[in-house]
Amino acid sequence: MIVPDIKKIAGVISLILFIITVSIAFVILFTPLYYYSAWSLGLPEQLGMSMETLMENYHVLLRYLHFPWITELNFPDFISSDSGLFHFYEVKLLFYLNYFVLIVSSIGSFFYLKSLKKKKRFWTLQKTFFIAALVPPLLLTFLAVSFDRMFVLFHEIFFNNDDWLFNPATDPIIMALPQEFFMYTFLLFFLLIEVFFIVAYQYSKRNAFK
User: Fold this and answer.
1) Measured between alpha carbons, how far is 194 from 174 in angstroms, rounded to an integer?
2) Whether the model pTM is above 0.70
3) 76-97 in b/e burial notation, b at 16+ Cβ within 10 A?
4) Phi and psi of 172, rounded to 5°?
5) By the 8 A CB rule, do 138 and 9 touch?
6) 209, burial (CB in 10 Å: exposed 0-12, middle 13-18, buried 19+)
7) Do the Cβ atoms of 48 and 24 come closer than 8 Å?
8) Rounded to an integer, what distance in angstroms lies between the CA atom of residue 147 and that of residue 160?
9) Distance CA 9, CA 26 (A)
10) pLDDT tens digits for the chain (210 residues)?
11) Are residues 133 and 172 in contact, defined by beta-carbon separation less than 8 angstroms?
12) Closest by alpha carbon to 210, among 124, 130, 132?
């Protein structure tokens, strides 16, 4: 009995991790969100540059964060401090960690779901995804009440230094990446995983009597 339980736990963890990491990947790569943020917040006007120039700098950042052969971050229109560059390097490592977990969890999820399909046991996921679907609304409530605290807490968890506290004088890129933009990314992330959890719950529920 112990082995099947371990397989179930590992399978459920793989599914949850896959949903989380694929949602993170989507938010990271969904550049229209940054375009909307820049437009709605009037960033081009504030920074004295065109939207095209701003987006070019944003894409330079994304390419650095994604491609291992790009080892130096050089913004066309922004200067950077050593601490600022080090923070982006740490973000780059976190991106790689997310994609690594995404790949591993996708493999684990594939085999676990294949096993459930073979045994016609999708219904066993009902409770798991019902409980999981309760979490995003709580986090969204926290976001609505105190995003500032959530933002700080996030950095305290994932970074063991204060390099994320950018000085606009030495790292003006921070003015192109305002806190409101990150609030939108958190919001989209929580909404995505909630949709995933609800769809998974409804699917497992429909298969309860099959």
Assistant:
1) 30
2) yes
3) eebebeebbeebbeebbeebee
4) -65, -10
5) no
6) exposed
7) no
8) 20
9) 26
10) 444 578 888 999 999 999 999 999 999 999 999 999 999 999 999 999 999 999 999 999 999 999 999 999 999 999 999 999 999 999 999 999 999 999 999 999 999 999 888 888 888 888 899 999 999 999 899 888 889 998 999 999 999 999 999 999 999 999 999 999 999 999 999 999 999 999 999 988 887 655
11) no
12) 124
- How far, in Å, CA of 112 to CA of 137, rounded? 27
117, amino acid identity: K
Return the structure tokens found at 44. 């081009």
Helix (H) or strand (E) holding 13: helix 2-29
Place of tokens 């779901």: 113
**DSSP state, residue 76:** S
DSSP E strand boundaries for the chain? none
Amino acid at 163: D
The 8-class DSSP code of residue 165 comes to S
DSSP state of 133: T
Measure the CA–CA gap between 168 and 157, rounded to whole angstroms.
23
Query: 149 to each of 91, 144, 207, how far by Cα in Å?
Result: 20, 11, 41
Number of H helices, E strands in the chain: 9, 0
What would the two tokens of residue 59 be? 């894409």
Structure tokens at 3: 């082995």
Return the residue matching tokens 């019902």: 130
